[in-house]
Amino acid sequence: MRKKGISLSMACLERASPALKEILLKIYHSANKSTEIDHHLYEFGSVEYHIQSSASDEHITYLSISTPLLTQEVLLPYGFSHRTKQMVTAICPDAVEIIEPAKEGYQLTLRLDFAKLPNGKESLKVIAEISAVQARILSSRLKEILMNVNSQDSYQGMYKPIKLVYRPSEPFFIIIQTQKIIAVFPIHFTDKPDVIIATTFFQELMDVGSSEKWAKAPPCCWSPIPPPELRGELFEDLSTTGGFVSFEISPRHVKGKKLDKTVWSLLNFYAYVKFHVKSTRSFIQRRMRKRLEGLVELLHKRNIKVEDEEEEKRRHKIQENAGFKCTIKIANLPKLSVLKQRYNGFSRTIKRIRSRIRIHGFGRFRHRWLKIPKFSSSMGYTKLE
After folding, report:
1. pTM confidence score
2. Alpha carbons 214 and 209: distance in angstroms, whole number
């Protein structure tokens, strides 16, 4: 089975590669099945893994790793340093073996024998440690530098910064001084809101670090300009938008198990800052959206209430106006019209009463005795028929 995969998960704060861990667990659980695996895995930071497993020997898996170096130094002819190899094989000496020379195109090739892994939950821990081998390789160089913080003879008077690159385009500098080492991180953000959040975070970090509660932690300092020790470095490395954050590492910070924690904290400081800035920005935006939704809902309820009140007032006004108009209409009738209506009504009453009276012979009496006399006129009027 030939397969290629790309893992674009950005700098997570876990040491183990999630994608590599998942693949190794699948191989471990299907060790009794005859399957052939040829898998290429690419991760953020130009990291490449090549996993091979043969069907003839299901318990053996080969893991090849290609990773950028933490420093610009040239890789030794025989590969990694002896200390780095010891750190890798110390994961599980029985199950992990370094193959030399490494496969062409890769810096390290491991032979994994899953049959020799411890039983139970311990096997899962070993696989997780194998998945974090790239972090072990990169941190080995920084560990060697920090372990020499007590060496007065080797580094006394040497102040030339050492440029380290754990993530692409995110370099930081190690400055070796007497009895202390200074780690300087140039911070760069593209968006202005991220710059504001980051600078505020650094100022709070300085205030918290100066308190008595965190007196044992490495002192932190933030400045908008580069420290004097970085004079002479490349301009693109010193052109930042978020200033420079410095940590002072003293001998007590690299004793025993503290060394591994200090190294991992320095390597992932960029990732932690970005995580904090993005989380803070998301929190602010979420609160602003909720606040805006609340205001819109409040305004919507207010508008509905105002519209209801206006509609109620309008109905009352219409009803009042209708009654008032009717009263005015009746009150403003002319007196002549009222009298005329009363007269017409009285006339109709009289006619009804008169139409019921009949006097026999009154018609002949009217034609005979109540004739209208005729008048003559010199003007010569003619009666019109």
Report:
1. 0.65
2. 6
CA distance 222 to 206: 7
Peptide bond into 373 cis (omega under 30): no
CA distances to 43, 61, 368 from 375, rounded to whole Å, are: 137, 152, 18
Structure confidence at residue 77 as a pLDDT band (50, 70, 90) = very low
Would you place residue 6 in the very low, low, confident or very high pLDDT band (cuts 50, 70, 90)? very low
Helices (H) and strands (E) in the chain, counts: 11, 11
Q: Is 294 left (phi over 0), alpha (psi -120 to 50) or beta?
A: alpha
In this predicted model, which residue has the larger pLDDT, 68 or 89?
89
Q: Which residue has the higher pLDDT, 207 or 370?
A: 207
d(CA 47, CA 6): 10
pLDDT at 157 over 80: no
DSSP characters for 312-353? HHHHHHHHHHHHHHHHHHHHT--HHHHHHHHHHHHHHHHHHH
For residue 192, what are the CA distances in angstroms to 186, 240, 242, 282, 288?
16, 12, 10, 15, 18
Rounded to an integer, what distance in angstroms lies between the CA atom of residue 352 and that of residue 368? Answer: 27
Strand partners, 64: 50, 109
User: CA–CA separation, 278 vs 194, rounded Å?
Assistant: 8
Residue 208 pLDDT greater than 80, yes or no: yes
